Amino acid sequence: MKRPSSTPIPELSASPRRRRSLSEEERALWESVAKHTKPLRKRARVAKAHAASPEAVTPAIARSASPPKQLPPAKLARAPRPASPPAAPPLAPLGRRERSQLSRGRKEIDARLDLHGMTQTRAHRVLFGFLQRAHSEGQTFVLVITGKGKTGAESERGVLRRQVPQWLSLPEFRSLVVGFEEAHIGHGGEGALYVRVRRARM
After folding, report:
1. What is the C-alpha separation between 123 and 112, in angstroms, rounded?
2. What is the crossing angle of helices 120-136 and 156-168, to 10°?
């Protein structure tokens, strides 16, 4: 006997799968796993990109491009100061023996200068020139007559009596004069001075 041919069973169309929602336990388990899981590459690339970003490189460039610290300036070589002229030597008073010999004529007075009737300006100029000549000529003792002046009267002669000793104490005169003393009465007394001239250096 022939078997009856089986009728083909029509294929059932595959019904779309429904998305199953997670249970509370599964959701809690997934969240705990996700918290403890570290990403492999994605974050590393982001970190590298962040490290290579211009914002991160700019401070390094700025630090490297910052100007170098200035070194302290080298000490400048001090220029040698010009040699100051030597100070004029101090005055030394004449000794008693020399004054005595001058007053008695035992020592010769080499030259005389009379300042009578001169103004201060002229007397200063004439006295300086006189002592320069005496110094250059090698003279030793000279007599400078100032005049005593009149008591209680303002006259040039009285002024010169006071001024000449002050002039002789000035540096420009000390280079020409060793010292001075009031002259003996025979040579003018209070109105004249013995002046010892400084020897010229050879």
Report:
1. 14
2. 40
Residue ranges per structural domain of the chain: 96-197
CATH topology of domain 96-197: Ribosomal Protein S8; Chain: A, domain 1 (3.30.1370)
Q: Of the segments 11-25, 75-89, 163-177, which one has the largest average pLDDT value?
A: 163-177
Reported pTM: 0.54
pLDDT by residue (tens digit) across 169-187?
999 999 999 999 888 888 8
Output the 3-class SS for the chain: CCCCCCCCCCCCCCCCCCCCCCCHHHHHHHHHHHHCCCCCCHHHHHHHHHHCCHHHHHHHHHHHHCCCCCCCCCCCCCCCCCCCCCCCCCCCCCCHHHHHHHHCCCCCCCEEEECCCCCHHHHHHHHHHHHHHHHHCCCCEEEEECCCCCCCCCCHHHHHHHHHHHHHCCHHHHCCEEEEEECCHHHCHHHEEEEEECCCCC
What's the length of the chain?
Answer: 202
CA distances from 159 to 3, 67, 166 (A): 177, 73, 11
**Which one, of 118, 195, 114, lies nearest residue 157 by Cα?**
118
Confidence of residue 42 (pLDDT cuts 50, 70, 90): low
User: How far is 47 from 9, CA to CA, in rounded Å?
Assistant: 61
